[in-house]
Design goal:
Helices cover about 30% and strands about 25% of the residues. It has helices at about 5-10, 60-80, 105-120; strands at about 25-30, 35, 40-45, 45, 90-100, 130-135, 145-150.
């Protein structure tokens, strides 16, 4: 089954590739590896989620926001390579989670992203990752995600 068909089967829609919010390119290639820039949970050109965990947003909400970041990252990759089926393996996710002091459940939030990737790609989606708590992110976003894939 094609990757985009799998995404639809799971009830998701691949959005248009997000536009950079600064002076950078969304995707960089090197020796068969794609690195995305930090991807925010932008929907329809707008950041609909602002805040920190857990004071402003729940862990469960964070998991759904992380899925939006994954879809945006895949969209950026598709825009760069033309076809998500060219992805051989998801290598690593780096998730930056805007966190209140003493909040330590960043991995639970990033599970939303990781679980979706494995649902989409199967064994090719099993990846290494880092879930990092930070005090602030661009535009007040609660999550920023970087994805590294092999093509």
């Amino acid at each position: 089954m094609k990757i985009e068909d799998k995404i639809k089967e799971l009830g998701f829609v691949l959005p248009p590739a997000p536009k950079p919010v600064g002076s950078y390119i969304p995707v960089s290639f090197s020796n068969g590896t794609i690195y995305t820039s930090g991807i925010l949970p932008i929907e329809n050109g707008k950041l609909n989620f602002i805040g920190s965990f857990p004071s402003d947003l729940s862990i469960e909400k964070g998991q759904s926001i992380a899925k939006i970041c994954v879809l945006n990252a895949l969209s950026a990759i598709k825009d760069a390579v033309g076809d998500l089926d060219s992805i051989k393996k998801v290598i690593k996710l780096n998730g930056f989670i805007r966190s209140d002091k003493d909040f330590a459940d960043q991995p639970k939030i990033l599970n939303g992203a990781s679980d979706l990737i494995v649902e989409i790609f199967g064994s090719k989606g099993k990846h290494a990752r880092s879930a990092i708590g930070v005090c602030e992110l661009p535009l007040g976003s609660p999550i920023e995600l970087e994805m590294i894939v092999e093509i």
